[in-house]
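Suppose you are handed a protein chain with no further information: no name, no annotation, nothing but its sequence. What can you learn? This example shows the usual starting point.
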Amino acid sequence: MLNIVMADIYRLTKGKSTGVFLGVSTLVFVMAITLSGVSIGPTQFNLILVSGLLVVSISISVISLIRVYCDDVSSGAIHHLFAKMPNKIYYLVAKSIVLAIYTLFCFLVLGIVFFVVMAINTKGFEGGFASYASISTIVTFSLKAFIGSFAMTMVSYNILVLTRKSGLSILFISLLATNFIDSTVELLSLLIKPLKYIKEYMITTYYMDSMYGIRTLTQLLIVAMCYIAFSFILQLLILKNRDFATE
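A reasonable first move is to predict its three-dimensional structure. Written in structure tokens, the prediction is:
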């Protein structure tokens, strides 16, 4: 299992797509702040922080699915791994660890970019950093974004396991992360009333509610853990009954 984690981390650091993603994200953010001409004060800071984390978490969930999971299928590496691995649970645990590390790395890099740009635009957080946001607020929102991104990626991996189609799983996470699936369920709930209760607990809706203060960090963590646990069990059941080595 440790070999899979180390090999994946090496693969992720050698690839160019992560650097391109982080570079483009940085450029877009800098241009958005520069061209908007908005005067950033304590009131605007929290709004920009939450909005930025929402956008970044969506982008990170998509790139994480591609780099951590889809690349194994498209490169054929999963066939070789499973041919030598009798217990598929080691693969799933290792991949979950890699996903957590990769997601955290992307958040840390873009977080540094965010605070550097904010420091420049606020003249070194003029008036004191505490007047803009407390450390606890920043940590809470950052943890929510990390949990939401991780959970959305894990849920979307179910599609890859079921279909072995990278394109389909990428389409699914794009629709899921941008709230398209949740919005569709909400529209259907006008015809099928019970769906409105399901929609409230869909991972994207729950995550966004938590970012806007409707749900707490603890509530999000509990719901996200339920989704992750269900996804893990589903993936294990499917992989146990599939011979990737001969497919």
